[in-house]
Amino acid sequence: MTQTVGERLKGFGWRQWLVLVAFLLVLGFTGLHAFRAVRGAVYWRYHRDEPIRGWMTVGYVAHSYQVPPHVLYLALGLPHKRPDKRPLREIAKAQNRSMDEIRAVLQDAIIHARPPYPAPSPPPPDEESAH
Amino acid sequence: MTITDQLLAALSLYGLPVLFGGLVISSAGVPFPMTLMLVAAGSFVEQGEMKLWPVLLLASTGAVLGDQIGYALGRKGGRRVAVRISRWIGSEDHIYKAEAFAERWGAAGIFFSRWLVTPLGPWLNLTSGITAYPWPRFLFWDVLGQVLWVVLYVMLGKIFSDRVEALTEILGNLGWVVIGLIVALILGWNLVQYLRPARTESAENLELLADESRRKTNRRASVGNLP
After folding, report:
1. Which residue of A has its CA nearest to B174?
2. Burial, A108: exposed, middle or buried (Cβ in 10 Å; 0-12, 13-18, 19+)?
3. Does A37 sit within 8 Å of B177, measured CB to CB?
4. What is the pTM of this model?
5. Is A37 in contact with B181 (Cβ distance < 8 A)?
6. What is the pLDDT of residues B184-212, one digit of tens each?
7. How far is the alpha carbon of B66 from chain A, nearest alpha carbon, in Å?
8. Which residues pair with A57 in a beta bridge?
9. What is the mean pLDDT of residues A48-71?
10. N or C: where does chain A have the smaller number of CB atoms within 10 Å of the terminal CB?
């Protein structure tokens, strides 16, 4: 007579059980990451704005939040003609401010550069270039 | 400040040298988040802060160079250690079996671990060296896979340049899903082998009966054809 699956399971040695447990663990691990990927995609669909982090440049934040860069440079009191390649953390250090302060300043500027507020005015001439 | 933040900050500040150095070190086996760096580099290209061709060229060169370091470590030091250990535990034939396995599956392993299942890349470099996988072939598949990886991730970063972190998180999770599925397939195949009914006596009897019936049918047919 052919053995059923249950009967064959009963005849499993420790090696076979080990493979079965590993198989179930790997399935769980794969399922968890698949869930995270789907959750990330759903989040992506509904939240366009990325949280502002210390590694980001002013240019990147402007690009990510789709606001003119000069608005953010002005809010931070930086010249806007040449792109500042420093990450926000470096700018915070140079201005003796915390990252939270920088984040708050940028978020405030971003809110005021988007509807329902009027579109931001074109960039004024830099102080450096005006002199 | 995490290592990821530090690397990204350095990338935005110093650009290409950081990208190149990071890729050499990570491909040699140090776990740096280089996928994120490539996607971020793609985003910087889109914003006009970096140029596309130097990014692609230097990133590919750095990744391939790092892989050669891993391979050389495996070939010079790792092989000697592996042979000594297998001699010590009395299973020298395992090395030859591993070599035969690498000979058969090495190309696919090297190619896919460059761009699809990247966390396995540094391990494949070491094992390719240990199993003395031919270096020209290793280099060929390595260059092919790494160029594909770099182009793929930089272009993704360029296309989705405003959401670097979200994209990298999704890609990272998808990478683990692919690895999980491959391992689950291998383990599942083993389980099926255990669960598959062994060739029992009854199955052999059935085959004998089928043979007997076939013979009878043929005999009847030949009798029917008699004049």
Report:
1. A37
2. exposed
3. yes
4. 0.75
5. no
6. 999 999 888 887 766 555 556 666 666 76
7. 25
8. A87
9. 89
10. C
